[in-house]
Amino acid sequence: MSGIEDLRNKMDEVTLDMIQLLKKRTQIASEIGKIKKNTGKGITDESRENNLREKVISLSKEIKIDEAISTKFLNFLLNESIKVQSTDKQTHLSIFLKAKSLEMQGKSIIHMEVGEPDFQPPDIVKKSLEEVFDKGFLKYGQAKGMPIFREALAKYVSKRFNTKVTQNNIIVSPGARFSIFSAISTLLNPGDEMIVIEPAWPAYKDCALNSGIKVRTINTTIEQKWEPSLEQIKNIINSNTKMIVLNYPNNPTGKILDDKLQDSIIQLAIDNDLYVLSDEIYSDYSKKKWKSVLSYNYEKSIVTQSFSKSHAMTGFRIGYGITNSTIIEKMAKLEALCLTNVSEPIQYVAMKALEADTSDNSNTVQNRLDMLSQKATEMGLDFVIPDGAMYIFARINKEGFNGVQFANSALEKGLAVAPGEGFGDYKNFIRLSACQNEEILEEGMNILSKIMSEEQ
Ligand code: PMP
């Protein structure tokens, strides 16, 4: 008996030592975070992480510990560092919230920070809101969504994306955001790795961090026209890599990948048995040929869609995921746990919205984006003309430019823009959204031009 007691005491000691070391490591991470902030460095440094990863792998070989376990443990430690260093990360949402509170104080603000179309949802939405009470879609329901709605979505998706899905391939969620969250957190385990191509919508990273999943970042650049190289992706795949996230048309760059590159990325994912999470909520806003990931019929792909942008229904909070029925069941379990189900009246309204012709929305956004691109070019902003989506991601080529400071000072002058930092290591970028009418956008760009010339 004393043998086991001794061993247990030793184990306790080791565990407590590890906690002490964790505290020490976290304190160092926090100090590094302060230096990074003061010097304008990004939080994640892939090459530095890789360096440490190699050391861990080599030690694992030397002391004969399973490499898969030690690298998962490393991923846990790296995520802890990221958490302490990201406490005051500023994104488009922080600027949006500041803008809202300034508006409450009576200030008028031009919103070019947020991706929220100013136009109304289709007329049929208003009519359906009136009729839903009598239609009786008012109760608890299946976590996956109402069968009648999923059936309608399956037909819509099959026709729109030239594929063949049934209602068993669909899960309804409160916005695409929740389908993204549930795909990441139900399919991956703590310590697993997920590839994100940056610049990227911040929630992919945040969902992963929340679930103890390590994000491996592929940095793309304006010089590369925001195109990731296959080599870059190949180089970071290891036995812990479980998913790659794609988002084309892209927020914030508006990029659409060429077919050939997209085909190769999907093939790489298939060869390495990775899930492909393809967030396609901007598919209605593409100016160039665009191919849905659904067209590959890859059983480990999860496509997310939403009514937020295509139907201007941001506040309804309704979107959906499309994938194989086994994954749907897994995601549905989490949805049942968190939400029971998406509000039935909202599902009914969205089902009716599918009948609307939204091509005017696509044209409106396209025209605004063209106008914004033209204005930005005239102003000499450094950006790649977007292939789609609703944004321009522009670099400000000025020594020491900081997007967060700029966004905060622009707010005082009545213009809200999104700092690049929210989308990755892009401190000298800002994102401008084309969600207001031409007149307002023009006014916004004039304010921007004035601020920039004042800052020369
Ligand atoms: N994906 C991307 C790329 C987005 O930009 C957004 C919202 N801005 C979402 C998903 C979330 O959309 P929803 O409103 O459907 O949750």
CATH superfamily caption of the largest domain: Type I PLP-dependent aspartate aminotransferase-like (Major domain)
Give average pLDDT, whole number.
Answer: 95
Structural class: alpha/beta
- Please tell me how large the radius of gyration is: 24 Å
Portion of residues in helices? Answer: 40-55%
Low-pLDDT segments, ≥5 res: none
Small-molecule binders here are: 4'-deoxy-4'-aminopyridoxal-5'-phosphate
Strand and helix order = HHHHEHHEHEHEHEHEEEHHHEHEEH
Counted by DSSP, the helix tally is 15
Which range does the strand content fall in? Answer: 5-15%
Strand elements, count: 11
CATH topology of the largest domain: Aspartate Aminotransferase, domain 2
Coarse morphology: globular
* CATH architecture level-2 label of the largest domain: 3-Layer(aba) Sandwich
Quick structural overview:
The chain is an alpha/beta fold and 456 residues long.
What's the layout of helices and strands?
Layout: H1 2-39, H2 46-63, H3 67-85, H4 92-104, E1 110-112, H5 123-135, H6 147-160, E2 170-173, H7 176-187, E3 193-198, H8 203-210, E4 214-219, H9 230-236, E5 241-246, H10 259-271, E6 275-279, E7 301-306, E8 319-322, H11 325-339, H12 344-353, H13 359-378, E9 391-395, H14 403-412, E10 415-419, E11 429-433, H15 438-454
Parallel strand pairs: 1-10, 3-4, 3-5, 5-6, 6-7
Antiparallel strand pairs: 2-8, 7-8, 9-11, 10-11
Helix pairs in contact: 1-3, 2-3, 5-12, 6-12, 7-8, 7-11, 13-15
The protein binds 4'-deoxy-4'-aminopyridoxal-5'-phosphate.
Describe the structure in your own words:
The chain has 456 residues and is of the alpha/beta class. The protein folds into three domains: 40-83; 92-119 and 359-455, Aspartate Aminotransferase, domain 1; 123-353, Type I PLP-dependent aspartate aminotransferase-like (Major domain) (Aspartate Aminotransferase, domain 2, 3-Layer(aba) Sandwich). The chain contains 15 helices and eleven strands. It has helices at 2-39, 46-63, 67-85, 92-104, 123-135, 147-160, 176-187, 203-210, 230-236, 259-271, 325-339, 344-353, 359-378, 403-412, 438-454; strands at residues 110-112, 170-173, 193-198, 214-219, 241-246, 275-279, 301-306, 319-322, 391-395, 415-419, 429-433. Helix 2 packs antiparallel against helix 3 (67-85) and helix 7 (176-187) packs parallel to helix 8 (203-210). It is globular and about 75 Å long. The chain binds 4'-deoxy-4'-aminopyridoxal-5'-phosphate (PMP). 4'-deoxy-4'-aminopyridoxal-5'-phosphate binds next to helix 7.
